[in-house]
Design goal:
This protein has 481 residues and is an alpha/beta fold. It has three domains: 207 residues, Rossmann fold, CATH 3.40.50.10810; 149 residues, P-loop containing nucleotide triphosphate hydrolases (Rossmann fold), CATH 3.40.50.300; 53 residues, no CATH class. Helices cover 41% and strands 20% of the residues. It contains 20 helices and 17 strands. The strands form four sheets. The chain has a seven-stranded parallel beta sheet, sandwiched between helices. Strands 10-17-16-13-15-14 form a six-stranded parallel beta sheet, sandwiched between helices. Strands 7-8 form a two-stranded antiparallel ribbon. Helix 1 packs across helix 2, helix 7 runs parallel beside helix 8 and helix 11 runs antiparallel to helix 12.
């Protein structure tokens, strides 16, 4: 039996060894492992073993923009020291410069161990990402991984078609997902086509076998269209995929860390990037012209930049202006892959309203409770609903209002849409879903825009640094960037 020998820095988890053993030798395989059970680690363990035997030199990872960068940090954690020292890792960036392309070319010609990380969204655009993936696949025997494989569940999209073609060039193919078909069993078809494991020869036959379809009137003129009203033969479908997949739920894993910190990178919108650049220039100018720079002055300028990253800013007249942002969509993406209740922490009142509205639009009225300064008359009742009503899945709260004295241990997931600058707020809020006798593990997600002050803030708070004490007059440039 294969064992996970390539992660000497972390405990060996039995279910990951079981997954390695089951997919041993398979050209195409699916890891249907719930969030926090170690899908990434299992793939890196397999890659380490294959690289050592010489059967595989390359690892191509296609993942959503919010998570593909995290693979590099995970590789450092989970690959053995010898492999980490010699492996080359490159990450696709949109709009690469001439220097980036030259570096990529040298990377592609490297004959040893190498890992290429690409965001799946880039495959839907004419950026050259697909061509670079093809070059990588031709450069040596490759394991190709689709992380969060429901991103290719739509049979007709450009990204799905490209992934299927690229997969034909790979030595091994792997898909990773916590929920293989969160919306429909029909989503499984393109995922298994990528693996080279056809569930039926044609998609039409697959639909006829597993979906219940009725013709119903639709739109102007009552045009008749086929509508899926239910599903059938699902036990048979489960048996079809069983030999080619490994399934584990979080509840099945007894040896996970008590609390896991996970980061999701969020790209700024064009409007945010422009506003951030302008505000950054302004903030630097203010600080450079301040005779005595104090932590308070620095934090004031950081606050302006922080608000832009949250999706809003204030005019000189004091009016709040919304800025298009991608964080709310990232929250929805995380929650789509998460079961049970969750707490979403935000720094600003405006974000309570925005995130709550987005959740209600997807999950319906009654799905969201709020705890903030703007609902002091109703927040106790809303808290009660969150704790007792199964339909009320989400608590959206500010750390200033809900960070102390509340017990929300019914939630196993926390998402920090944005952090305040207060270490006390962070430490207190993290304790809200802890309780004596709590058995379930907790996931803590931080949404972060890299290369901005937000990255500094998240790193400081996780490392238990109080920003007001950490910032001194001489090092303000390290914080305003």
């Amino acid at each position: 039996m294969l064992t996970a020998t390539y992660h000497p820095k972390l405990p060996r988890w039995k279910h990951q060894n079981d997954a390695l053993a089951k997919m041993n030798g398979a050209d195409g395989f699916a890891l249907f492992m719930e969030m926090r059970t170690g899908k990434t680690k299992t793939i890196l363990d397999e890659y380490g073993q294959d690289e050592e035997t010489g059967s595989i030199t390359n690892l191509l990872v296609i993942a959503p923009a919010g998570v593909y960068r995290t693979w590099e940090g995970d590789a450092e954690k989970h690959l053995g020291d010898a492999l980490w020292d010699r492996v080359l890792i490159e990450r696709w960036e949109s709009g690469p410069s001439a220097i980036d392309l030259r570096r990529l070319s040298m990377f592609m010609h490297h004959k040893g161990a190498k890992i290429f990380l690409v965001n799946v969204e880039a495959l839907s655009t004419k950026t050259g990402a697909a061509e670079q993936c093809q070059r990588f696949l031709l450069s040596g025997p490759t394991t190709m991984v689709i992380d969060e494989s429901t991103t290719i569940k739509n049979w007709k999209t450009k990204r799905t078609k490209l992934c299927l073609k690229l997969g034909e060039m790979a030595t091994k193919r792997r898909i990773l997902s916590g929920l293989p078909s969160p919306q429909s069993p029909l989503d499984l078809y393109p995922q298994f086509e990528f693996l080279g494991v056809p569930l039926l020869e044609k998609y039409d036959r697959f639909v006829a076998r597993y979906a219940i379809v009725q013709r119903k009137p639709f739109g102007p003129g009552n045009r008749l269209v086929d509508v899926t009203v239910g599903y059938q033969n699902l036990d048979e479908l489960k048996e079809r995929i069983r030999p080619h997949s490994f399934r584990v739920r979080l509840a099945d894993c007894y040896d996970l860390p008590e609390k896991m910190y996970l980061r999701r990178d969020v790209e700024p919108t064009e409007e945010q990037a422009r506003a951030y650049r302008e505000m950054h220039a302004y903030a630097v100018a203010v600080l450079e012209n301040t005779e005595r720079v104090t932590a308070t002055v620095v934090l004031t300028q950081m606050l302006r930049l922080h608000q832009i990253l949250a999706g809003h800013t204030k005019t000189d007249e004091g009016n709040l202006v919304d800025i298009p942002e991608n964080k709310t969509a990232e929250v929805l993406d995380i929650l789509e892959k998460t079961s049970g209740k969750a707490i979403i922490w935000v720094a600003y009142d405006a974000d309570v309203k925005k995130v709550s509205a987005a959740l209600q639009k997807v999950y319906g009225l009654g799905s969201v409770a709020r705890f903030w300064g703007g609902n002091t008359d109703t927040r106790e009742d809303e808290e009660k609903a969150f704790k007792t009503d199964p339909q009320c899945r989400f608590m959206v709260a500010t750390a200033a209002a809900g960070g102390r004295g509340r017990t929300w241990d019914i939630a196993d997931t926390m998402i920090y849409y944005s952090n305040t600058f207060s270490l006390e707020h962070r430490m207190q809020s993290e304790e809200r879903n802890q309780a004596v006798g709590k058995q379930n593990n907790v996931a803590v997600f931080d949404l972060m825009t890299r290369g901005t002050i937000e990255e500094k803030i998240v790193n400081a708070l996780i490392n238990k640094m109080d920003l007001s004490n950490a910032i001194t007059g001489d090092d303000w440039r390290e914080w305003i960037r």
